Every structure is written in structure tokens, then in C-alpha cells.
Amino acid sequence: MKKNVWFVMAVLGVCVMSVNAATVAYWRFEEGPAGAQVPKTVMGGTWEPSTADSSGNGYHLSVWDQSGAGYRYRSDVAGPVVNSAANNFSVKNSGGWPAMWTQTGAGIQTMTPAAFTIEATFKLENGGWRTLIGRDSYGAATKGNDTNPALSALYFQATPGNRLAIKFVDVDGYWHDATSAENVFQSFHFPSNPDGVGVPWYSMAAVSDGTLLSLYLRNVTAEGAWALIAQTDMTVINPGSTNTALSAGMGAGGDWDAGNFSVGRGMYNGGHADRAWGYLDEIRISDSALAVSEFLLVVPEPATLALLALGTLVLRRKR
């Protein structure tokens, strides 16, 4: 019981904070209703604003289509509140080739932040390479320990053996990688458990401060604390880099443009790849290195939600 009280107090502290000024894009997938297809009214592969960017910057996501490469809204969520906002829906792929992406020509396409934070809440199917958030590119890795041109500019992903990883190419052309140990999260077997019943929800956050590349994980269902699961000193691994800012990528293809962010898929060798089958929610990109206390906090229990509402009311009366 004491643990839950302190947990609620921590949540209350987060909930009175405003949205961080460093937020570039924030996709909450709250349009719904549950079971509805995330809309796509134009030809597959043509960008349109399918789901809103809650940051206010206008960087909306488009789904590829309303069938094999689309998504549906689901009422299965990690918790009913994220910070002070209600959380009613997540999205889950409606076919085998899920894909969402940002608009070509938008400001997010060309940004090269010296520091950044990427966050997502998820429940994934079993698989190999599963990219939650990527950045389209070919040929950007040109220096250092890995110059494979097939690598994209960014991978925020699960890898074989249920490892988790943050990987990116910097502006100077160097490749950086922080990958966890095996089996740091549990995934589900689609043929026997297509809705992932009984499998935990997780939140993951990657932070680059220009020197350290860090990856954090939280088991939301278990009300776990944030744990550091991987960290790399980029100045030691690639001491030659003169600029560890996130690259905007290189190249172009018939169905992609360098610098666009992807959700639910990655890119390898100039092609869409590494689909992340399963549930996605609460995805945020920031152009600064957030502290752990600034990460999005999903509240998993309805009882906690009631206490949260009461505490917020008390705080408001004191103002």
C-alpha cells in the first residue's frame, strides 16, 4: 500500500507539468472509436493526415492504406491516463505490412537535433527486427565502425531475442548503437494469442545528450520503475565524430524520402522493412535530452486514476 501511495504522489507531480517545450511531435491515437480503421481516403502510399500530432506543430501521421498496411483503433491501452490526459485508445496493425509516416516537406523532415528523446508505449508480437520508430534513409553511414549503406538513419526497435535498441547515424556520418540484453520484454504469439491477452504493456525511451546514448524501459502493467537497459558513450565508441546530432538521412525512393519519420516500420537497403506488429501508443519525439522525471508516465490502474483526479483538484484549489 505504501508503494502505491508514493506512486500516486509521483504521478501527481508529473500531471501538473505542462507539455515540454522541446516536444517536436506527439502521436496519441485518441481519435477512435475502438475497432475503426485509422482513416485513409486517398490512394495507398499517398500522404494525408490520418492521425493527429498533439504537439500543435502539425506533424500528423499518415497510414499507408486501410487494409494490409493499415491500423485499427483499439481500446486495449497501458493505462487510462498519461500525465494529466485521458488515454482511451491505442492502434494495432490491421494487416501484415503496417506503415505510418510523416509528411514530405514538413519541418520535421529536415531537423537535425544535437540532443533528442524518443518515447513509445507498446505491446508487440513475437518477431525479429521490429522498428517502432524509424527515419528513412540510404547511404548516410559513411564513417567509423559501421559504414553499411543499407542502414537507415534511425531505428528505435525490438531486435531478435527480444532485445531493445536505439540506433542512429549522426550528421558526421557515424553510426551509434545502444542495445539491451536479451529478453528484456515479453511479446505475444499471434496464432495462439492474437490480441496479446496477459502480455504486459511497456514504455520505452531513448535519450541522446550528444555524448551518452541511453535506453530506458518501464513495465507499465506491473507499475514498474524506469530502468536503464542500455547505454553507450558515443565519444568513446566513435571518437572521430565531430557532430553527434541526428542525421536527416540521405537518398530517396519510389515510396520514401530521406528524413521522414516512420512509425510501425523501419527501412533497410532502401526498402520498407522491420514491421512492428502489435499495439502502439503515446509516441513522442523531443529535440532535447529529457530527464527520466520528464518522460511520459502512463498510469495503469483505475483506482490510481480516481486518486489522481482528486489530487489534481486539490492542487487547483490551492492556486
Report what the structure shows:
- With 319 residues, the protein is mainly beta.
- The chain has 3 helices and 22 strands.
- It has helices spanning 2-15, 234-237, 302-318, and strands at residues 23-27, 62-63, 71-74, 81-82, 85-86, 90-93, 100-101, 116-124, 130-135, 154-159, 163-169, 175-179, 202-208, 212-219, 227-233, 252-253, 256-257, 261-263, 266-268, 271-273, 278-286, 298-299.
- The strands form 5 sheets. Strands 1, 3, 6, 8, 13, 14, 15 and 21 form an 8-stranded antiparallel sheet that branches. Strands 2-7-18-9-10-11-12 form a 7-stranded antiparallel sheet, with no helix packed on it.
- α1 (2-15) packs across α3.
- The model is unreliable at 1-20 and 303-319 (pLDDT under 50).
Low-confidence stretches: 1-20, 303-319
Specify the helix fraction band. 10-25%
Rg from Cα: 19 Å
Question: What would you call the structural class?
Answer: mainly beta
The geometry reads as globular
Instruction: Count every beta strand, where a strand is a DSSP E run of 2 or more residues.
Output: 22
Biggest sheet record: 8 strands, antiparallel
End-to-end separation: 29 Å
Provide a count of the helices. Answer: 3
Give the H and E element order.
HEEEEEEEEEEEEEEEHEEEEEEEH
